[in-house]
Design brief:
Elements lengths: L2 H30 L7 H19 L2 H25 L4 H19 L25 H5 L4 H19 L1 H11 L1 H6 L4 H27 L11 H11 L4 H24 L6 H5 L1 H15 L21
């Protein structure tokens, strides 16, 4: 394999993995607090279309990224009001949020379909970016790629090394006990859900402003569901989510190269299914294999909490 092909493959893997990692980290924090939000796909699409529209209208990618984060948080706030305040079913509400996000993004983005924008600028570092292989891969990425790496470390540190992180985990393990000793369970869960929405919005912004700098209807293409699966694959641990995101990114690139090179003579649609088939296979293996007892799912995941009056 030539150096050019190797660098191109690595860059494509990073591009495919970054939105998965951003969305998975946000959902991981939400689930650690005991909230199961299946609306990641809808929040990603809301972030993607809002970020793209804001960038088109203002000419600023920074404004677009901020708008995408706000849009993701707005969708998450809607989910929080319905599930945490009104105690609606979390699974049904999450599915409805995804359907709502798909429809809303198609409506808002109808006037932007096919219109390209300048991709987010690469944060090139003089000297380092010119290094062979390592330079363009590690020192020639945009802000959101570096943010995904930094947030992996930050979330891992927050959950395991800080008092607020341990409180959040305690709420996810036993909200009744946490409430009994005075912790504001609903407020903590709102903050966790909003963080999940922010990260999903940023994942959407990466799709429409960096990975494919244009708006295409339903451009998340199931990545929100893969991000949900990554949380389980990672056993609710951030560093494992990083590994999982790049593994699934690698699977995506394998199927792309197989299609373009003609190595495997099968329909392109079958190869496009490969990342999702890999997701299902991994989840089945985890659920049925010797790792089942080590999943470490929060005990109160998806369980509604009504404070005693």
């Amino acid at each position: 394999m030539s150096t050019t092909i190797l660098v191109a493959s690595l860059l494509t893997i990073i591009g495919a993995a970054t939105p998965l990692l951003l969305a998975a980290l946000g959902e991981l924090v939400a689930e650690r607090s005991g909230v199961l939000n299946l609306g990641v796909e809808g929040m990603m699409l809301a972030g993607a279309v809002t970020g793209f529209a804001a960038t088109m209208l203002t000419g600023s990618g920074t404004v677009g990224v901020i708008a995408a984060a706000v849009a993701g948080m707005a969708m998450a706030l809607l989910f929080g009001v319905l599930t945490l305040s009104l105690l609606s079913n979390q699974v049904a509400t999450g599915l409805a949020l995804t359907i709502f996000g798909v429809g809303l993004s198609a409506l808002v983005g109808s006037g932007f379909v096919g219109s390209p924008v300048a991709p987010l600028p690469k944060l090139a570092l003089p000297g380092l970016s010119q290094l062979p292989i390592v330079g363009p891969v590690l020192f020639g990425q945009d802000f959101l790629v570096y943010l995904s790496w930094a947030m992996t470390a930050a979330v891992a540190w927050f959950l395991t090394r800080t008092r607020p992180g341990m409180i959040l985990r305690a709420v996810g393990e036993s909200h009744e006990a946490a409430h009994a000793i005075g912790y504001p369970v609903i407020r903590i869960r709102y903050l966790a859900v909003l963080f999940g929405g922010l990260m999903a919005g940023l994942a959407g912004a990466f799709l429409s402003l960096s990975y494919t700098p244009m708006w295409v209807e339903d451009m998340s293409a199931g990545r929100g569901w893969i991000a949900l699966a990554l949380v389980v694959f990672a056993a609710w641990r951030p560093w494992r989510a990083l590994i999982g995101a790049y593994l699934f990114g690698g699977v995506t690139i394998i199927q792309l190269h197989a299609q373009t090179s003609g190595i495997i003579n099968v329909p392109a649609q079958v190869m496009s299914m490969l990342p999702y088939l890999a997701t299902i296979a991994v989840l089945v293996a985890i659920s049925a294999g010797p790792w089942r007892g080590r999943l470490n799912a929060p005990a109160c995941l998806g369980v509604p909490f009504r404070p005693a009056t």
